[in-house]
Amino acid sequence: MIAQSKKPLMDVIPWPMGQGFQGGTLWWEYVLDRNEQDRLDLMLMTALLSTEVCDMLLNHNQDLLQAFDFSQETLSRLTEIQVSTLEEFADAILPRQGR
Length: 99
Description:
globular
């Protein structure tokens, strides 16, 4: 017999309401309980999974940015980034190892 997982399914794609799977609120509780760097990482991860979210991020969509509850300083910094790819965006915000 196969053991069934009791973990909730979480989805945020398509943005912002997902497909209605169980556990969406748990995802956001998890996200909003993280420090700001972790929330940035989770936002980038979501953008990697969805071209729609990626486009929103590169175009500084305020609904997307505000959902991750960034500080005003971080919001200002994110909206100043002018790049055309997610890789360039990540390079602009993530600390580089070995610099």
